[in-house]
């Protein structure tokens, strides 16, 4: 019998999840709460006008529709305890409990766990007293990294190359509310970033293909951090030997440390990594969910039916699953609204989507809404355009061909996605 699945969230990651699930014959119906303009038109999908934080309404719907599996996309409902709520209701749900989600919800908590597990990471100190933090910044000097302890929608991290920039970042903390009440100040790590995401059912770990995200808004990795301007997978920076090191020195010890704390962690363990010039690897941060836009390049490469992986993860039988991946590569380019990551435009008509699909592109909606037959912009990151190729170079070229089909007023995007990897491939 075909599965009924509820996906929680409204971004590009959730559209990609819905798309990946919909293409399986084992899935019959998908609801996305609240969804976006893309999920509204996806095969087998329907949007559900319920907030990701309204656990009671979501659980009631799951009961009434006999939903077989709920999949949580964003971090906020995980940190607020949606998994705990659903489990108490006897519902099957994919994602870590509130306690496990502290890996992302509190950078200070995650640092303590990493030190306990012997996981390599940057030296750091946390402060609840802003004046003490200022004194430490002046004492340490730049470069250094300033991080709001809690969830800040990808905007709470400042890589400060000057002391004045770090002090200014401390002044910005109040705008993050409770998330900025504690600050973590870290040593600066030089190198190149990569993302390794893994499924885990609390006992078994199954790593996904390595990816690389582009956080900075400008070409050449310049300008302020964003939620992500593009990604590609697999990342050639992470070869087989380095992947083994990541699994043995980072993923496995982290899971063991969670077990020692009696945390039954089921869901995605996302390691944001810094690869040093000497091929050393250290953890920048952990996330407790799939990345965005990494999801949009990893899931299109997954050969194993996604629902089988998600169910096995939620039910504790991941040891029976062997992840199979397609050959080749995937690349994703994010189209952002004018002004993003600052104040940005909304409500602009998006055209060329049908032409983009005809070109063979996968267009995942991040910040859109459907108004009658039109799709309008409704967020800072509007679309994530993904293409596959036999090799990374052809995947990137195809993604930009698809991007050229789409028009939105004042839209901007990076034109150098994958630039570091292309240099490695030469």
UniProtKB/TrEMBL annotation:
PROSITE patterns: ATP_GRASP (PS50975), GARS (PS00184). The keyword Manganese applies. Coiled coil: none annotated. Residues 111-315 form the ATP-grasp domain. Keywords: ATP-binding, Ligase, Manganese, Metal-binding, Nucleotide-binding, Purine biosynthesis. GO terms for biological process: 'de novo' IMP biosynthetic process; purine nucleobase biosynthetic process; purine nucleotide biosynthetic process. It catalyses: 5-phospho-beta-D-ribosylamine + glycine + ATP = N(1)-(5-phospho-beta-D-ribosyl)glycinamide + ADP + phosphate + H(+). One of its GO terms (molecular function) is phosphoribosylamine-glycine ligase activity. Its EC number is 6.3.4.13. It comes from the Bacteria. Pathway: Purine metabolism; IMP biosynthesis via de novo pathway; N(1)-(5-phospho-D-ribosyl)glycinamide from 5-phospho-alpha-D-ribose 1-diphosphate: step 2/2. Its cofactor is Mg(2+); Mn(2+). Pfam families: GARS_A (PF01071), GARS_C (PF02843), GARS_N (PF02844). Belongs to the GARS family. NCBIfam families: purD. This is Phosphoribosylamine--glycine ligase. The lineage of its organism: Bacteria, Bacillati, Cyanobacteriota, Cyanophyceae, Gloeobacterales.
